[in-house]
TrEMBL record:
Taxonomic path: Bacteria, Pseudomonadati, Thermodesulfobacteriota, Desulfovibrionia, Desulfovibrionales
Protein known as: TRAP dicarboxylate transporter, DctP subunit
InterPro entries membership: DctP_fam, TRAP_DctP, TRAP_DctP_sf
Key words of the record: Signal, Transport
BP GO terms, sorted: transmembrane transport
GO cellular component: outer membrane-bounded periplasmic space
Family: Belongs to the bacterial solute-binding protein 7 family.
UniProt KW Transport keyword: yes
Binding site for orotate: E37, R43, R172, F195, N212, T216
């Protein structure tokens, strides 16, 4: 019995020692970050790089565990999870955030960002971009960074090489008054349809066209049921890096800075990966026989002039005084950057 008692004592001691080792090696500030995209897409690869760098730069005290492909729920569920603290973070497209923060719907306004990527980044990182991130503070989120995730382009089964061509055509949009006004401004109609129904709607002529980034058009095979594409890059698809406020406030300030700086540092690589995906997709679309027309600078300016007032009004009707302040800041910054 004495021998057995010694074994138990030794076993318990070993458990205590091992437990101490495990505790010593465990990250002090662990965060689960969920998102929708697959492990092969730029967003996930960027997040994995951020996680690696942050762990190194905080000596292992901050550890991000990345969950791709909706493992933690759909985007609405992940956004709510961040608000309620059931998960610590998510990276969400602006399109999924308007119901949580109407101010972010400004990203639905067409031609909001300059085509020039460096100028777009200046706008994103300047006063306008910072104010947009801060608008999440009162909505149960800590937004720390913005990552680009492609630009939308127009496609149709009818010619769309001139602005006049759009008149009378119908386009599928997400359920957004701003996007409906975008098409109304050029004489077209817009129909809000679920994304999963879009291919069939194009195939059966329920709508003439749609708008999406090139890699989405290629991945969803919309080029099989569309004849014309204009590389308009009119709509910016932006991702927002969101943390639960309580988790964020638990971090030391120097760790907060490391995390923000790392997300900003990794962003150009994410954008470059996304840009390459657009180029590859365009080649597939061209080979399929779709007629591709670049949107010329003069047409871009004319289209923006027609669309901006109507879409701005639709945005302000929803975003109120806070939206008005953001629009004012945007217009000042845009005028300064795009000279």
């Amino acid at each position: 019995m004495k021998f057995f008692g010694r074994i138990v004592t030794v076993a318990l001691a070993l458990c205590m020692v091992m437990g101490g080792v495990i505790s010593a090696n465990a990250a002090k500030y662990e965060a689960r970050i969920g998102h929708l995209e697959s492990p092969l897409q730029p967003r996930h690869q960027g997040l994995e790089k951020v996680a690696k760098l942050v762990k190194e730069r905080t000596n292992g005290e901050v550890e991000f565990k990345i969950f791709p492909s909706s493992q933690l729920g759909n985007q609405r569920q992940m956004n709510e999870g961040v608000q309620f603290g059931t998960i610590e973070g998510t990276v969400s497209a602006a399109a999924f955030l308007g119901g949580f923060n109407p101010v972010v719907s400004i990203m639905d306004i067409p031609f909001l960002l300059p085509v020039d990527r460096a100028k777009a980044q200046e706008l994103r990182q300047g006063k306008f971009g910072k104010a947009l991130l801060k608008s999440f503070d009162s909505r149960g989120f800590k937004a720390i960074a913005t990552w680009p995730n492609g630009r939308k382009n127009f496609t149709s089964n009818k010619p769309i090489s001139t602005i006049a061509d759009y008149k009378g055509q119908s386009f599928r949009v997400m359920d957004s008054k701003i996007l409906i006004e975008q098409f109304a401004a050029i004489g077209a109609s817009a129909i809000a349809l679920p994304f999963g129904e879009l291919y069939t709607a194009l195939q059966n002529g329920v709508v003439d066209g749609e708008e999406n980034p090139l890699d989405t058009i290629q991945r969803m095979k919309f080029y099989e049921v569309q004849k014309y594409l204009v590389t308009s890059e009119h709509g910016a698809m932006e991702d927002y890096v969101l943390f639960n406020p309580s988790y964020w406030e638990s971090l030391p300030e120097n760790y907060q800075k490391i995390i923000v700086d790392t997300f900003i540092e990794v962003m150009p690589g994410v954008e470059a990966h996304k840009e390459q995906a657009q180029k590859d997709a365009l080649e597939v679309i061209k080979k399929a026989g779709v007629q591709v027309t670049p949107l010329q600078a003069a047409d871009r300016a004319a289209m923006r002039e027609l669309m901006y007032p109507k879409t701005k009004a639709a945005y302000l009707a929803r975003a109120g005084a806070q939206g008005q302040e953001l629009i004012k800041l945007y217009e000042e910054e845009y005028a300064r950057i795009v000279k």
